[in-house]
């Protein structure tokens, strides 16, 4: 029975000729919208769809938009995709069909994570086709977008503005938060769904606490609980003579139960997403400080690779990456030289506690673009640092080379400049490695030439370098 007391088999089909070309679609319970459609399962079933006869739709339902995704196992990608669509007024009430039937897919209003087509003009958002290679931005070029990322890219700003109208009332803030949320949250879902590992090579450990993993565990636990409860009831019914003794227990879920499970997990995942989006608004304060320092970086050093936070706050790497990518995109658009990326920034609570930080590498939590040289790190006294670096006032450099402390701003700047010069020398292998070999080869060639000239004069032998 559904919420309105109608039996499943008495329910109408959800698409009719009055709404669009007649197609066969799943029969299901018409629950409070949005409506989901699943097949009746067995003990091995995941979510699916089952075809039924085409029956005229009830009047009040026939104009609801039809959303289609794949049948089979569900993942965070399609659950979050459905959540996003339900945030839009035009899809808040909808009919959801989970199928791979081409006729139903063709007639749907929105198709996501199935169909083999990406075309936002006709609301098709699949990512499985071989020609597909869409990425969100330059900052995330190593991760192709899944359905969730595609929908977030096209509808995310609208949804964020709808959620936080007073905080994201101007385009600059909206653009930043939109990019930041993708970089910090949505990208992970896309990467997992596309089978993109967090790094190359063997992992030292695996993550079992991601949203995708938690959804998988929760689904298994829920099914196990439902199975155990029904098996216990089955045994009791056998003892009471309600079921033949020879009958074996089989576990299956009804259409309504599949609907409830999918809704529950979609809402669960969506709540976490909205929580993170709310939390990300705190970055707007740091954005203002970081942007001001970023715009003045060429005043700090002519290279633009050293940034000074002026003791106003800390420079978040992800904020910096977004600012850099925007600056690079603007330069390319205007035909101007590509600006350099920042390697070091100064910060701290006051001048006596000046810190110099090596900017982290994109997509890696522990590596730096230009860490402080190994020979400078982890000394036991200020004199040792001065002797190793040639800069006074350095009191600490972390053993991994990502952080340094100095007694004042002047020492911090001197250290950053010295590190920058060292990093730029190391970044030119031709000058530091190849050129010395070329010089050595030239010297040996010259010596050989002189030797053969002298030998020729003595014995009249015409060597390799002799006259031809």
From TrEMBL:
Pfam families found in the cross-reference section: MYG1_exonuc
Coiled coil: none
Species in which this protein is naturally found: Aduncisulcus paluster
GO molecular function: hydrolase activity
Family per similarity comment: Belongs to the MYG1 family.
Keyword annotations of the record: Hydrolase, Membrane, Transmembrane, Transmembrane helix
Protein name (database record): Metal-dependent protein hydrolase like protein
Transmembrane segments: 430-449
């Amino acid at each position: 029975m559904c919420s309105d007391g109608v039996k499943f088999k008495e329910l109408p089909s959800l698409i009719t000729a009055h709404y669009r070309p007649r197609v066969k679609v799943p029969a299901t319970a018409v629950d409070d919208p949005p409506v989901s459609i699943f097949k009746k399962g067995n003990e091995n079933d995941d979510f699916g769809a089952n075809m039924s006869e085409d029956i005229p739709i009830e009047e009040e339902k026939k104009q609801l938009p039809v959303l289609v995704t794949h049948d089979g196992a569900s993942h965070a990608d399609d659950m979050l995709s459905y959540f996003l669509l339900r945030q839009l007024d035009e899809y808040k009430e909808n009919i959801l069909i989970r199928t791979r039937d081409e006729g139903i897919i063709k007639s749907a209003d929105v198709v996501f994570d199935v169909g083999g087509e990406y075309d936002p003009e006709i609301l098709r958002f699949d990512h499985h086709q071989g020609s597909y290679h869409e990425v969100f931005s330059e900052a995330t070029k190593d991760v192709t977008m899944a359905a969730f990322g595609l929908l977030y890219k096209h509808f995310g700003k609208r949804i964020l503005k709808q959620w936080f109208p007073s905080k994201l009332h101007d385009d600059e803030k909206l653009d930043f938060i939109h990019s930041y949320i993708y970089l910090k949250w949505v990208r992970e879902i896309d990467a997992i769904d596309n089978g993109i590992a967090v790094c190359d090579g063997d992992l030292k450990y695996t993550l079992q606490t991601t949203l995708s993993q938690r959804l998988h565990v929760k689904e298994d636990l829920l099914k196990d609980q439902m199975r155990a409860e029904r098996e216990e009831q089955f045994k009791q019914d056998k003892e009471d003579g309600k079921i033949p003794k020879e009958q074996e227990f089989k576990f299956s879920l009804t259409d309504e139960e599949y609907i409830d499970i999918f809704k529950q997990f979609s809402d669960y995942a969506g709540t976490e997403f909205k929580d993170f989006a709310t939390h990300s608004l705190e970055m707007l304060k740091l954005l203002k400080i970081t942007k001001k320092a970023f715009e003045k970086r060429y005043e700090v050093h002519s290279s633009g690779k050293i940034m000074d936070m002026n003791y106003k706050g800390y420079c978040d790497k992800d904020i910096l990456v977004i600012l850099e990518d925007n600056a690079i995109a603007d330069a390319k658009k205007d035909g101007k030289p590509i600006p350099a990326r920042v390697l070091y920034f100064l910060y701290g609570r006051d001048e006596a506690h000046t810190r110099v930080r090596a900017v982290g590498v994109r997509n890696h939590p522990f590596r730096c673009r230009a860490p402080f040289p190994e020979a400078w790190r982890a000394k036991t006294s200020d004199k040792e640092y001065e002797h190793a670096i040639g800069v006074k006032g350095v009191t600490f450099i972390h053993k991994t080379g990502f952080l340094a402390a100095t007694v004042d701003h002047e020492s911090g700047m001197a250290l950053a400049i010295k590190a920058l010069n060292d990093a730029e020398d190391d970044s030119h292998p031709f000058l530091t490695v190849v050129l010395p070999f070329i010089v050595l080869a030239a010297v040996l060639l010259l010596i050989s030439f002189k030797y053969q000239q002298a030998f020729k004069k003595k014995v009249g032998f015409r060597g390799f370098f002799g006259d031809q």
